[in-house]
Specification:
19% of the residues lie in helices and 28% in strands. It is of the alpha/beta class. It is globular.
Length: 259
């Protein structure tokens, strides 16, 4: 399997609009972080993880010409407001694309995008993304492109986000902690993708970097890559400060992971 990080930044993105801090003005391209999304390439096709607002630009940057399935972790704007950019794939292929959405959030997704999830046909000469909602339930494996994805629910303030394990990859999106049931699914992963924000100050719905490091050690993956990073941390500083086996991801980073 091949994993490409399309975006690795927090909901504000980096640089932050109107900010002149050392990260936002950095000339290191690894400090430029668009909103979080990833592309998982399997022998049978490509799974897009989340649809952030910059999705079109991310897909162009990585020269992606096909997506075969979509996994939505939760319906916050920074993870789903690029969903209309999926339209080109369904128009080109003239077929429906399966979008796997946590069962908790199906109704919100329908309500957020009524022009997509309606029985009415679009006006002649226009198009909408042809998406089929496929519910994902906590602890119930889902087969996507011939591979078993093991979903698990994670606390994220008043809502639950849904991560997954497939083969040697564990993917943990926005979350405050990893519950015991999810930890059990993640045991033995080769690569862990884990959301974190900054050092020090606690956040009510996200892990800070101290919590993420402790969580990564608990999971015990050979390599852990951190995403959802803010402008309060620079890539080079993180490389110097994080313990061995834990490192920041950056936009465009590609990894090979055991299937």
């Amino acid at each position: 399997m091949r994993l490409t990080f399309l975006g690795t930044g927090t909901s504000f993105g980096v640089p932050v609009v109107g900010c002149g801090c050392s990260t936002c003005t950095s000339t290191d391209p690894r400090d430029a972080r668009t909103r979080c999304g990833a592309l998982l390439e399997l022998p049978e096709g490509r799974v897009l993880v989340d649809a952030p607002p910059e999705l079109r630009l991310q897909l162009l940057r990585e020269r992606v010409d096909r997506v075969d399935a979509v996994w939505i972790t939760h319906p916050h704007a920074d993870h789903i407001h690029g969903v209309d950019d999926l339209r080109i794939f369904t128009v080109r292929r003239r077929e429906t694309l399966a979008m796997h959405v946590p069962s908790d959030h199906l109704e919100e997704v329908r309500a957020r995008f009524p022009y997509i999830f309606t029985s009415a046909a679009p006006p002649p000469g226009t198009s909408v993304p042809l998406l089929r909602l496929a519910p994902v339930r906590d602890g119930e494996p889902v087969e996507i492109l011939g591979h078993s994805f093991h979903p698990f629910a994670l606390p994220h303030g008043p809502m639950r986000t849904f991560g997954f394990r497939v083969g040697g990859l564990g993917f943990v999106p926005d979350a405050k902690r990893i519950p015991p049931a999810a930890l059990a699914v993640l045991r033995g992963v080769e690569v862990l993708v884990l959301s974190a924000l900054w050092w020090g100050d606690p956040h009510p719905t996200h892990m800070n970097l101290d919590e993420a490091v402790a969580t990564a050690r608990e999971v015990g993956a050979r390599r852990t890559f951190l995403i959802h990073l803010t402008h309060r941390v620079r890539h080079r500083e993180l490389l110097e400060r994080l313990p061995d086996g834990i490192e920041p991801a950056h936009d465009g980073l590609c990894l090979e992971v055991s299937p």
